Amino acid sequence: MLPSNEPLYMNPVLEPRFTRANQLVFEGLVGLSSSLEPVPVLAESWTRSDDGRQITFKLRKGVKWHDGKPFTSKDVAFTYQSIRDTQSQTLWKPYFAAVSKLDTPDEQTVVVTYSKPYAPALIAWTVGLLPAHVYGGGPLAESRGNREPVGTGPFRMARWIEGKRLVFEANKAWWNGRPNLDTVELRVDLGDDQLKALKDGQLDFVQVPDVEAWSGEVQMPDFRADFEVSTVVGSLFRAIAWNVQRKPFDDKRVRLAMTLALNRGRIIEDLFFNQAQPMSAPFFPNMFGADPSIAPYPFDIERAVKVLDEAGHPAGPNGRFPMQIIAVASQRTPQNEQMFAIFRTDLAAIGIDMKVEYLSSRDYQARVVLRDFDGVFFGWLPDIPDPDPSALLHSSQIKEGKNNFAGYADADADKLIEAASGTNNRAERKAIYHKLHAKVNADLPYTVLYAPYSHYAWSRRLHGVHPEDIGPQPRFPGLSGWWVDP
Q1: 3-state SS of the chain?
Q2: What is the pLDDT of residues 431-471, one digit of tens each?
Q3: Residue 356 belongs to domain spanning
């Protein structure tokens, strides 16, 4: 038994958030190795053209959908076209925008042609594929498959008790061999105290977000006698985006002063018990791209004061200026409240009165779209396991509904981002991102606060477990390789 969010759709194209359900049922042409490298799944092989504008996939023979129908290139074409055509929200549309055409010369071949070289092209095909005969025939959001899914994956849905649990059974005809587990049960009704549910036997595997519990109870001999544990450096960070289109945050000297005045080291040490790492730019800590030689700015009140004075914001009887950070109401946790209390004291020391406003998701999004904020507190996870930072940094992503929260628009940064996404040469791409890292670290549209470590615990009756098997970017073959004591 595992915890999960309840899916809105049993449909990997439309599901807007991470759940463990879809990854049990659906598979992509490509999967991920333990080191986030692409591995063959429904495509047994692929070749790229010399100019990087075409990928030819050879599909695995003999693959069946859960209802026994054959998987063919028609289903790949259907999934691609569904992503392009759907009027519903899908996170996948940007990753296929560069596709100029998709051809299916036979049932086992898919040829994808791109309008320009696009580095994340291959990894985008981790998207779960849909059977045309189940999800076709009408609007994707209205398909019966969204509640009665049919995939090619190692498990098939047995029942869905809304608000309580989803039960999956082994796909005995899975192309990669029968999974070791007979059933997998996802619980969606156990609330936040998953560690208690683990100890009570209601769950077999949990994430442990409470760093105090992790540093204390979880390390005790009695606990470790019954449970295995693991720490993962994942692809997550938390940051503040500064509104670079609003004064005084349009001045990078002000953004530097704010960064210098936030005691991020204390947050990591006191609130996270050193279970997080500092970062100097919005790059994922477990992917190539970040330049490790660029250290985060230190906590330096004296320098922050000097920078603000030089920027023309001298301290007066009422300080320098007020500022407000907005955040989603769900982020109003005791830990974040403590963090902002520390930051409020830090900023008061340089004459800045900081307030934090927690908003509903709807109001939060409206304020972001209207650019009605000084700073935005947010957490960032990648949609696909690729280091491309364009969603946060490219000027094209400032428009309504996009994710460049800071409103950062810089021609040189855009050119670097485009150059990196336009090459399939890993070393060349890494070198470009190092240049981008240096620029972003100088401009500071974002102050990255920390990248938290992820902690997990599971019953010793489970074997073959690695937490990233079922994480936001699941490794292949994932949970199908786990087994339990007889």
Answers
A1: CEECCCCCCCCCCCCCCCCCHHHHHCCCCEEECCCCCEEECCEEEEEECCCCCEEEEEECCCCECCCCCECCHHHHHHHHHHHHHCCCCCCCHHHHCCEEEEEEEECCEEEEEECCCCHHHCHHHHCCCCCHHHHCCCCHHHCHHHCCCCCCCCEEEEEEECCCEEEEEECCCCCCCCCCCCEEEEECCCCCCHHHHHHCCCCCEEECCCHHHHHCHHHCHHHHHHEEEEEECCCCEEEEEECCCCCCCCCHHHHHHHHHHCCHHHHHHHHCCCCEECCCCCCCCCCECECCCCCCCCCCHHHHHHHHHHCCCCCECCECEEEEEEEEHHHCCHHHHHHHHHHHHHHHCCCEEEEEEEECHHHHHHHHHHCCCCEEEEEECCCCCCCCCHHHHCHHHCCCCCCCCCCCCCHHHHHHHHHHHCCCCHHHHHHHHHHHHHHHHHHCCEEEEEEECEEEEEECCEECCCHHHHCCCCCCCHHHHCEECC
A2: 999 999 999 999 999 999 999 999 999 999 999 999 999 98
A3: 237-452
